[in-house]
Design a protein that fits this description.
six-stranded parallel β-sheet, about 475 residues, Rossmann fold, 2 domains, nine-stranded mixed β-sheet
Length: about 475
């Protein structure tokens, strides 16, 4: 049995800002369930973690963490949840704050966390064979594990969830915080800055990312955010593994958030549509096609394309529901459109998990025209709730949504390749035509019903990565 230590900055159900937390919350359980891997997870003990979890934690020990001339105090706590053991690193100065990101000293905070991970090894009640770091916040931990080698023959995996966020810091922080010979500086520096993402890529024995297509895309300057040279160097050790979703958590048969539970029944799905229409104040109509978007309102998610074509598409006999928060530009735009078209569009500019589930359950279509998308979980959830995804062919969207072909009857959604507003409008119009053709719509829904994206296959692929990893000497 492999012993694997996940290092991450967030994990559901304890603390969550996005999809990373969902992955760290569900992948260890799949690895243990399907592959008999002993996975433990180590996280910062944020003040934002609810007391219902903090009260269950067990104090383990305290220890010192060297950061340059400083010796910071840290404490280790543990908690078992759903048969997975979680460790939490506590430090009042770095983690007793509102929120978990967005501070001027985020770089220092996660250098501390990464060094604390290495220093805590002697205090853990198991010996990891693999340290698996996730995203830039854990990149330094991967690097230090390789350099300091807290466990003999420890192998390292680094997973890129979103290469856009890299953890950049002034280069002089290396001398101030790292306690390492200057010969190691090159493994952390990129374009005159310390780069946590780069340090994880450089030092890892294997690099993974969250879909096969994204693994190829980030070798290209358009997608790499400047890191394509090092990714090309590491291409033999770069693997794309598609994310899954927790199909017990996202299950319309037993979801307590939705009005009517169902498996494949379109009749019951229409009942959920009516319930959502009543909640949002849209005209009641079981047959009117309902398009939904549940997303951060940011450029990455394709909202500039939506702005260009929304008024024209609203001339059709459709309804649209939008849920999310983000940039003022998009929040203001959707507020304005909602006021001008109250019978056709409702924008709920907040995040509400219960409402999100109700929207998935009610939707005929789920729109996700992302500019780039490492994997995407929303389209997988939509398929699980039997909503047809409409996506741009990028990253994980390309790997999980196959465009409907009315000649062969294949495909579980609609897609377009160019980041172009007219291409999006064309595919929206096409989706509407298919919806009103009972034969084609029936074929499409059968394909949606067969779509499966549990963690089982992904867990197997991660085990293959762990077993094929050859330790690299730095």
């Amino acid at each position: 049995m492999k012993n694997v230590l996940f290092v991450a900055s967030e994990c559901s159900p304890f603390i969550k800002t996005g999809g990373l937390a969902d992955v760290i919350g569900s992948l260890p359980q799949a690895l243990k369930k399907y592959e008999r891997v002993d996975v433990r997870v180590i996280l910062p003990l944020y003040d934002e973690i609810p007391s219902e979890w903090r009260d269950k934690m067990k104090y383990e020990t305290s220890f010192r963490v060297p950061l340059g001339w400083r010796n910071q105090e840290a404490s280790l706590y543990s908690l078992e949840h759903n048969s997975i053991k979680y460790y939490f690193i506590s430090n009042d100065y770095y983690f007793t704050r509102k929120g978990i990101y967005g501070y001027y000293d985020d770089g220092e905070r996660f250098i501390f966390f990464s060094r604390a991970v290495i220093e805590v090894f002697p205090h853990l009640d198991f010996t990891p064979d693999v340290l698996h770091g996730h995203d830039w916040q854990a990149g330094i931990a991967v690097a230090l594990a390789k350099i300091i080698q807290p466990v003999e023959n420890l192998k390292t995996i680094f997973t890129i969830h979103n290469i856009k966020y890299q953890g950049l810091m002034p280069h002089d922080m290396f001398e101030e915080f790292f306690n390492l010979p200057s010969s190691h500086f090159g493994g952390f520096e990129w374009n005159g800055m310390l780069n946590c993402m780069k340090s994880g890529i450089f030092h890892a024995d294997k690099v993974t990312t969250v879909s096969p297509s994204y693994a190829e895309e980030i070798k290209n300057p358009f997608f790499s955010e400047g890191l394509h040279p090092i990714l090309l160097e590491k291409s033999e050790d770069l693997v794309g593994v598609i994310n899954g979703i927790d199909t017990d958590e996202y299950n319309p048969m037993k979801d307590s958030h939705i009005e009517v539970n169902y498996r494949h029944s379109r009749v019951k799905k229409k009942e959920n549509k009516v319930a959502l229409q009543e909640r949002l104040g849209l005209p009641i109509s079981e047959e009117k096609p309902l398009y939904v978007m549940i997303s951060r309102l940011v450029e990455q998610k394709g909202f500039h394309l939506i702005q260009c074509i929304l008024e024209e598409f609203l001339q059709e006999d459709v309804q649209i529901a939008i849920l999310g928060t983000g940039d003022e530009e998009f929040e203001g735009y959707f507020s304005h459109i909602s006021e001008n078209h109250p019978e056709k569009l409702k924008a709920y500019l907040a995040f509400d998990e219960g409402l999100a589930r109700q929207m998935y359950a009610a939707a005929d279509f789920f729109i996700m025209p992302s500019k780039f998308e490492p994997c995407g979980l929303s389209q997988l959830i939509a398929l699980q709730y039997k909503a047809v995804p409409i996506v741009r062919e990028t990253g994980g969207l390309k790997d999980t949504v196959t465009p409907f072909n009315e000649l062969t009857g294949e495909g579980n959604g609609f897609s377009f390749s160019n980041y172009n507003a007219h291409d999006l409008l064309t595919v929206l119009h096409y989706s509407l035509r298919v919806y009103h053709d009972d034969t084609k719509w029936g074929k499409l829904l059968k394909n949606v019903n067969k779509s499966q994206f549990s963690w089982k296959q992904s867990a197997r692929e991660y085990v293959n990565v762990y077993e094929c990893t050859t330790k690299v000497t730095i």
